Amino acid sequence: MNKHVDIKRRDRGPKGRSLDDAAFEEMRGLFEGQQLRRDLLIEYLHKIQDTYGCISAAHIRAMAELMRLPQAEIYEVASFYDHFDVVREGEDAPAPLTIRVCDSLSCMMAGSEALIAALESGVDPTLVRIARAPCMGRCDTAPAARVGDREVDHATSESLMKLASEGGFDTVVPDYINLFAYQEYGGYALYDSVRSGAVGAESLIEALSDAGLRGLGGAGFPAGKKWGFVRSYAGPRLMTINGDEGEPGTFKDRYLLESDPHRTLEGALIAAHAVEAERVYFYMRDEYPAVLEILRTEIAALEAAEIIAPGFIELRRGAGAYICGEESAMIESIEGKRGLPRHRPPYIAEVGLFGRPTLNHNVETLWWIRDIVENGAEWFADQGKPGHPGPRSWSVSGRVKEPGVKLAPAGVTIRELIDDYCGGMAEGHEFKAYLPGGASGGILPASMDRIPLDFGGELADADAFVGSHAVVVLSDKDSVKEATLNLLRFFKHESCGQCTPCRGGTEKMVSLLEQEGPLDEAAIRDLEAVMRDASICGLGQAAPNPVNHLLIHFRDEL
């Protein structure tokens, strides 16, 4: 009887807020001819945001009617992501133009706070909204900003206000190697060999294992072993590509995709074939409008060339949530939900996207597959330092003369990166400290400049890790305490809120660091232990790393 009543209530449509006929017609027109799917909810919200500049309560009610979903379900998804502007009844819509300014560590060091203050005092808030943004993946050209969809390097208040007044906020796509140019130099020949059976899955797994290729998004899990795990579970199987590099200081994946995207795409097709994945979902962060445009264009080109079937690679657009760089949170987002990390086990290799065994890889990991198979595992492994196989793409920013993506061996030291790859320290700056692996990897003093940078080993012994290979260099002009506070504010903002140790822990850690006078070290250490032991995912577990190093290595700043 109760089941019958529930069905009848659902048939009457979502309860609560009354339906606005005009909003309903707008939504019906916007999605005319489409069969709306629950897993595409975030894509639909993007379309509403892009069309109307916000997502109104009336539009949420209309979408609930169209999709036969509770309004609360749509609202909780829309309000979870930073790039959706949810406007309630009686609230004003945001200004028609938004200027986002990055306030993460590299940009803070380059003067983003002064830039934000100048913009806030120099624009009409009814016409232009100034928004703080977490890392925008342009740390080498800090301070970074975005006017509409126009990305701006080395931003100044004058350049941003000039752009705002002149118009022209569309995405600027850099020159890159398109499908035709890629094929001119042997592109997709290896994939053809894999599809024909000339190169088998087992030989591919052996090559990746012998090369020592690891996941290069942060965890460093051996790629060949991951393929074997996924293949061991009964199909049907799926594959995901994690392009959500939101770790402060990280921009290598953007660089790779803005220059040679088919290296990653061919690697993805080879991996998908090896594990017999029925479809590939490419999750790309919304902070990279140029990359999104490149991927749309080149995936369509692959379909037109009949290299892939239409829809085999499905591009999904993130919406501003660092937590979606965690693989299970990313999968929740692809399914059209809030990006909340899942409890493990089971791991996604067994129960992943839509409940299927799922192979997940980072952009750079896939980028190396063609080179490894064509040139041999030994060729790849020998490019690293002894005991540290392979080359790596290092995102280097901060107080160096020549920041950028640096191709250097695994096991390189920070001293070698600075002197041999970045032209030394910036003029007038003396090396003081560095982040070996983004916000999560901790902060080490200059005296520890001979540690090989790689997964595990001496770096792990120092309670640090290389993570996404994001290196930020600090100088004698910088305060490590202020840098630590910046990083913890980032974690506080980006905590998904699912578990109390992370949600409350990051908030409390920020308040402890902000207190005047000596730090309450006993409270900090107690809080650190709780966050590490009880947080569901790596965000809460790793957030105390820079605080730990502040207390150990930089006591003169306390």
Brief synopsis:
Helices cover 44% and strands 13% of the residues. By secondary structure, it is of the alpha/beta class.
Strand order of the largest sheet: 12-11-15-13-14
Level of helix content?
A: 40-55%
| Weakly predicted, low-confidence segments | 1-12
The 3D shape can be described as globular
Strand tally is 15
Strand content is 5-15%
Tally the helices: what do you get?
26
The whole-number mean of residue pLDDT values reads 95
Fold and architecture overview:
- By secondary structure, the protein is α/β, with parallel strands linked by helices.
- The protein is about 45% helix and about 15% strand.
- It is built from 26 helices and 15 strands.
- The strands form 4 sheets. It has a 5-stranded mixed beta sheet. It has a 4-stranded mixed beta sheet with strand order 4-3-5-6, covered by helices on one side.
- Helix 10 (about 190-195) runs parallel beside helix 14 and helix 13 packs across helix 14.
- The longest helix is centred in the middle third of the chain and has 16 residues, at about 290-305.
- The protein is globular.
- Residues about 1-10 have low confidence and may be disordered.
List the helices and strands and how they pair.
Elements: H1 2-11, H2 21-30, H3 41-52, E1 55-56, H4 57-67, H5 71-78, E2 86-87, E3 97-102, H6 105-109, H7 112-122, E4 128-133, E5 145-147, E6 150-152, H8 157-166, H9 179-184, H10 189-196, H11 201-211, H12 223-232, E7 237-243, H13 252-259, H14 261-274, E8 277-284, H15 289-304, E9 313-317, H16 327-334, E10 358-362, H17 363-367, H18 369-375, H19 377-381, E11 391-398, E12 404-409, H20 414-421, E13 431-435, E14 444-445, H21 457-461, E15 470-475, H22 480-494, H23 500-514, H24 521-534, H25 538-542, H26 545-553
Parallel strand pairs: 1-2, 3-4, 7-8, 7-10, 8-9, 11-15
Antiparallel strand pairs: 3-5, 5-6, 11-12, 13-14, 13-15
